[in-house]
């Protein structure tokens, strides 16, 4: 009764969501006396907007912890169940929790760091390849959103390359969600008005 597939999936949806919904960007900026992140720059709670406070350490900490929470959700599910399906469900739920946290009236971040953390935990070779693509695109263009979109879009390519067919559905869903969360950035990129890294 208590170990049906539906109940197991539901458990990891809830746990993954709650882990992903911790708003580290807001917690870090408040703790460091940097003000309310939602009233700074784009109002986003992710590392790119934290960087607009001028505090690189706070931005790095936000990037790291947003990635770690996604990875932890996946690894916890794997440790408890040993099941790849549960791991993918937990990771997807953590990503959604970051983007739509109930504590912030479902107004969260764009999920890039959490996406990378989830993918790294599901398959570290795929995750490292996505991180490399993200960094390369961001360094070349100096536009954070381009790095995010290139890194996300490359995930399914790397899943093919490393023969992780079992991750393709989850990878595709995550990529679509990353693009959806960046829809305003895509409009600005098309218009040539997207700000560069460090620009307030």
TrEMBL record:
EC number in record: 2.3.1.275
Subcellular location: Cell membrane
GO CC terms: plasma membrane
GO MF: acyl-phosphate glycerol-3-phosphate acyltransferase activity
UniProt function note: Catalyzes the transfer of an acyl group from acyl-phosphate (acyl-PO(4)) to glycerol-3-phosphate (G3P) to form lysophosphatidic acid (LPA). This enzyme utilizes acyl-phosphate as fatty acyl donor, but not acyl-CoA or acyl-ACP.
NCBIfam families: glycerol-3-phosphate 1-O-acyltransferase PlsY
Protein name: Glycerol-3-phosphate acyltransferase
């Amino acid at each position: 009764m208590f170990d049906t597939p539906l109940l197991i999936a539901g458990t990891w949806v809830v746990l993954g969501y709650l882990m992903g919904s911790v708003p580290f960007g807001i917690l870090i900026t408040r703790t460091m006396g940097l003000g309310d992140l939602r009233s700074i720059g784009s109002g986003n709670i992710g590392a790119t907007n934290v960087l607009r406070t001028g505090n690189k350490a706070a931005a790095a900490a936000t990037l790291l912890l947003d990635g770690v929470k996604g990875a932890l959700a996946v690894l916890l599910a794997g440790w408890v169940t040993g099941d790849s399906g549960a791991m993918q469900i937990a990771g997807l739920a953590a990503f959604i929790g970051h983007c739509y946290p109930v504590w912030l009236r479902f107004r969260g971040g764009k999920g890039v760091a959490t996406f990378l953390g989830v993918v790294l935990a599901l398959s570290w070779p795929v995750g490292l390849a996505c991180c490399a693509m993200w960094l390369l695109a961001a360094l070349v263009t100096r536009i954070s959103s381009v790095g995010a979109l290139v890194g996300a879009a490359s995930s399914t390519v790397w899943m093919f390359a490393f023969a992780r067919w079992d991750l393709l559905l989850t990878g595709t869903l995550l990529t679509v969600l990353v693009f959806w969360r960046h829809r305003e950035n895509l409009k600005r990129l098309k218009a040539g008005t997207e700000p560069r890294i460090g620009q307030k």
